[in-house]
Structures are given as structure tokens and as C-alpha cells.
């Protein structure tokens, strides 16, 4: 399938239909779950710094309102189109369902290359986009809550919040209209690394399943596993870093300028700093440059983590992939054709549908924080520390033995916000991974983990619709 006629939404629909056969919902309900509920296409003018006027193309898609608000990132990219935004919104619906985050799926996109605009121009575009969403009631803490995505970050989320607050001056929960904000603006600690950490937690859980590892011919656990990561953005960097910290060996890294390989392992932070200093990961001391950035995908490894854009592994290059496990940190990095190849080869694909749900899970925690108007840990941190100190003192008195300083600090520590966020994310990812794996194990006719994930998601969304009484 050529890139020209490749439909990302078509690919999601294809995966959906494959999974729908393993559910008992009637056709009409499946159609409702599959389709996008609302597609908002916008065109608006912006005055560039040189005085010229440019018309900007933008989108916001609400895929499902089986739970409200809807939730999904906003990406700034020259490749943005309606098909892509619809597909990403659909994936958000299924993702939230699998990890039990009570949101419907949505997504936004502005068709610009942010590198070609000044900060002032980007601010004008972001604020105007927000104003257009407000006009059509496509944003709000109880309606639709955007977040950062490719090409956006905390800065853009601050602009969205400020615009929304200015137009809703008396709304006490205005901070909940968007997530991924700076901590000073109501953001939550741990949000930045959340997606990468979620990828790590999900893959670690798979690696701790003895039956799965035996089938793949691998040892149990993360330690010593050879890992290749494509993409050194926020998600890729943190995924690689958490694996490295857990004892895995990062043997390959890829970015759009090329890829590097060192069978003895790469230091992720050193590569990151090298790229900052030189503008490229290439020519990193001790590593071999590979001719193309996609060459890293074909390295011999235990775990491959594509953390860049969609459609990077397709029917053409899938037969050359040698990884035992592929963890989809990006959205839709594999085409359905690649899935077919990996099913035949016995390669385990841990799908994006829940594996990269760390971002939306922690966004949910941020949203709850904004609605409750209190920081996590503020009420219980000191109480927990005092209680733990007392218990430890009693144990030392009764046993006549002293605990080491390091252990004492660990036991006495009361949870900070970031501790609680990490803990909630770990719990979410472990449960989601086991739920999908159980669905797959309990139904041997399901061909792969992606289909099992869709089955779990369809059943949850279908149940929600049925309980709402939408289908009498």
C-alpha cells in the first residue's frame, strides 16, 4: 500500500472489524462505536510577523461521547489531515476504555510546521484555535479536554488555558479545560515523562510473564534485554531512559537524521546531550552510524520501541524486523500488513492502544487535581511520615535493632505528588496489560494482542453505551 492512498482511519477500522468478530454486540452498536461522533474542520486567518496573511487549516474530532468529557491531544504538524485526526481520536476512545480512564476519545490538529513560525505567531494560532473551539462548544472541563501531542507542549497548553479562562471568567474549574500544563498553572508532577514511563511499566509486565517469555525464547524480566528505540522525543527518550535504569541494554537509537548502533549499549543521556550539542545523534563516540534512520528498526534485538510517527513499519520492511517484542510507543507505527507478517513470524506486538496510555492516564490525574483544587499528597504526606516514624520507632524499640539510614528514609517517606502519580500509573498499566493478555489467552482464536486489546475496548464502550440506555 503506497503512502499516497494509505488511510490511517481505514487502518483503525480494519483492526476494529477484525476484533468485532470476537464480540457479541449487534451490528448497529458496533457501527456506533466505530464512527466519529463529531468532526470540526476550521479555517482561520493569521497575520505573520512579516505582515502577510496566512489561512490556517485545523481540526478537532470527537470520536465518542459514551463518557464525558472527551480527551485527546493537539498536534502541530505539516502532515495533519482529517483522516489522521479521526484515526487518533478513535484510538483515544479505545485507549481510555482499556485503562479505565472515564473519557471519550478526541483529537486535534493544526496543519503547520511549528519550526517555521515564531513564538508570537504560534501563540496567535493557538489562541485563535482555542477561541474557535469555544465558539462551537468543543472545549471545556466537562466537554472536551485537549492535551499536548506531537509539536506541542506545556507552553501551548498555557495559552489554551489563558484563552479559555479569559472567555469564562467565572468558571471555577477552568483549569480543567486542558491538561499537560506547567505545574505552576495547575499541571501535575510526572506528566512530562508519563507516556514513556507507561511504556516501560507495560513492557516490564509482559517481560515478567514466564509463559510469554518462554514462548519467545527470552528470560523473565527486563534486565539484560537488548532494546532499540526509534525517536528521541519526549516519549522515546523517557522510554529508553527507564529501560536503561532498569538494567536493559540500549543497543540502537534512531532519529529523523539517522540511526546509531552499539551492541555493548548506548548511554541515553550522553546521546541526548550529543544531539543537543551537534544537532544530530550521528557520529556519537563508540557507536556505528547506520545509513538510514529506519535501519535501526531492523537491528537484532529483544525489544523494539517505535516512538516516532505512524506507519513506520509496513508490509515492505516488516519481514526484515528481527525483534522478539515490539512495543508501540508511538500512535499507529505498524500498518495492518505489518501485523500480519508479525503474527506469522511469532513476534509479539504490544499495541499502542494501551501501551502509550501513560499520557492520558496522568492527564486524568491532572484533571481530577484541577477539579478538586488540591495538590496530591498535600493532605496525607505529613500524617503518613509521622505514622511511619512512630511505627519504625516502636519496631526498633521492641527488637533492639537499628534500621540503616537508607532504609529509614525509604520507610519514613510520605508520598509526594510525583510518587502518587507514578504509583497510579504503574497500577493502571499493570492492570491493563493483564486484562488484555487474559482476553487473548482465554480466546485462542484471537490472532494477536492488538485484536485482544480492541475486543477489551469494544466490550467496555459497548457496555457503557448500553448502560446509558442509548440503545433501547
Detail the topology: elements first, then pairings.
Elements: H1 8-20, H2 27-34, E1 38-47, E2 53-62, E3 70-76, H3 82-98, E4 104-110, H4 119-135, E5 144-148, H5 154-167, H6 194-207, H7 210-216, E6 226-230, H8 234-245, E7 249-255, E8 258-261, H9 268-278, E9 288-290, E10 303-306, E11 325-327, H10 336-345, E12 348-350, H11 352-355, H12 358-372, H13 381-399, H14 405-412, H15 417-442, H16 449-468
Parallel strand pairs: 3-4, 3-5, 6-7, 6-10, 10-11, 11-12
Antiparallel strand pairs: 1-2, 2-4, 7-8, 8-9
Tell me the β content.
5-15%
Mean pLDDT across every amino acid position? 91
State the total count of DSSP E strands: 12
Instruction: Give the full name of the CATH homologous superfamily of the largest domain.
Output: NAD(P)-binding Rossmann-like Domain
The neighbouring-strand order within the major sheet is 9-8-7-6-10-11-12
**Basic shape:** globular
Q: Give me the number of helical elements.
A: 16
In the CATH scheme, the class of the largest domain would be Alpha Beta
| Poorly predicted ranges | none
Give the number of domains: 2
How helix-rich are the residues, as a percent range?
Answer: 40-55%
Distance between the termini: 41 Å
Secondary-structure-based class equals alpha/beta
Order of helices and strands: HHEEEHEHEHHHEHEEHEEEHEHHHHHH
Largest sheet: 7 strands, mixed
Give me the Rg, rounded: 23 Å
- Quote the CATH topology of the largest domain: Rossmann fold
CATH architecture of the largest domain: 3-Layer(aba) Sandwich
Amino acid at each position: 500500500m503506497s503512502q499516497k492512498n494509505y488511510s490511517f482511519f481505514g487502518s483503525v477500522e480494519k483492526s476494529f472489524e477484525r476484533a468485532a468478530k470476537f464480540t457479541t454486540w449487534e451490528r448497529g452498536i458496533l457501527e456506533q462505536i466505530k464512527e466519529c461522533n463529531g468532526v470540526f474542520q476550521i479555517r482561520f486567518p493569521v497575520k505573520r510577523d512579516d505582515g502577510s496573511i496566512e489561512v490556517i487549516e485545523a481540526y478537532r474530532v470527537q470520536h465518542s461521547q459514551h463518557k464525558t468529557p472527551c480527551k485527546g491531544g493537539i498536534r502541530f504538524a505539516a502532515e495533519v489531515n482529517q483522516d489522521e485526526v479521526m484515526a487518533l481520536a478513535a484510538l483515544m476512545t479505545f485507549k481510555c476504555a482499556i485503562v479505565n480512564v472515564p473519557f471519550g476519545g478526541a483529537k486535534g490538529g493544526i496543519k503547520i510546521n511549528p519550526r517555521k513560525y515564531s513564538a508570537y505567531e504560534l501563540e496567535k494560532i493557538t489562541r485563535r484555535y482555542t477561541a474557535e473551539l469555544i465558539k462551537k462548544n468543543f472545549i471545556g472541563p466537562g466537554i472536551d479536554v485537549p492535551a499536548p501531542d506531537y509539536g506541542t507542549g506545556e507552553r501551548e497548553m498555557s495559552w489554551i488555558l489563558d484563552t479559555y479562562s479569559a472567555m469564562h471568567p467565572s468558571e471555577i474549574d477552568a483549569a480543567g479545560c486542558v491538561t499537560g500544563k506547567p505545574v505552576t498553572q495547575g499541571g501535575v508532577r510526572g506528566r512530562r515523562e508519563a507516556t514513556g514511563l507507561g511504556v516501560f511499566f507495560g513492557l516490564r509486565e509482559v517481560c515478567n510473564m514466564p509463559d510469554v517469555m518462554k514462548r519467545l525464547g527470552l528470560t523473565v524480566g527486563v534486565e539484560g534485554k537488548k532494546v532499540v528505540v526509534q525517536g528521541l522525543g519526549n516519549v522515546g527518550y523517557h522510554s529508553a531512559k527507564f529501560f536503561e535504569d532498569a538494567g536493559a541494554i540500549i543497543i540502537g537509537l534512531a532519529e529523523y537524521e539517522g540511526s546509531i548502533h552499539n551492541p555493548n549499549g548506548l548511554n541515553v543521556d550522553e546521546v541526548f546531550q550529543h544531539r543537543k550539542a551537534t544537532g544530530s545523534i550521528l557520529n556519537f563516540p563508540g557507536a556505528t552510524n547506520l545509513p538510514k534512520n529506519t535501519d535501526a528498526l531492523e537491528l537484532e534485538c529483544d525489544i523494539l520501541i517505535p516512538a516516532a510517527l505512524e506507519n513506520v513499519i509496513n508490509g515492505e520492511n516488516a519481514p526484515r524486523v528481527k525483534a522478539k517484542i515490539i512495543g508501540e510507543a508511538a500512535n499507529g507505527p505498524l500498518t495492518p500488513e505489518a501485523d500480519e507478517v508479525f503474527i506469522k513470524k511469532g513476534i509479539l506486538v504490544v499495541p499502542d492502544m494501551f501501551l502509550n496510555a501513560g499520557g492520558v492516564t496522568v492527564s486524568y490525574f491532572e484533571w481530577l487535581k484541577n477539579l478538586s483544587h488540591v495538590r496530591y499528597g498535600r493532605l496525607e504526606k505529613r500524617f503518613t511520615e509521622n505514622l511511619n516514624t512512630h511505627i519504625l520507632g516502636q519496631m526498633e524499640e521492641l527488637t533492639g535493632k537499628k534500621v540503616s539510614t537508607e532504609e529509614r528514609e525509604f520507610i519514613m517517606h510520605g508520598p509526594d505528588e510525583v510518587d502518587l502519580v507514578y504509583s497510579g500509573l504503574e497500577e493502571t498499566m499493570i492492570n491493563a496489560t493483564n486484562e488484555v493478555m487474559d482476553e487473548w489467552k482465554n480466546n485462542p482464536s484471537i490472532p494477536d494482542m492488538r485484536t485482544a486489546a480492541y475486543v477489551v475496548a469494544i466490550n467496555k464502550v459497548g457496555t457503557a453505551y448500553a448502560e446509558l440506555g442509548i440503545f433501547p
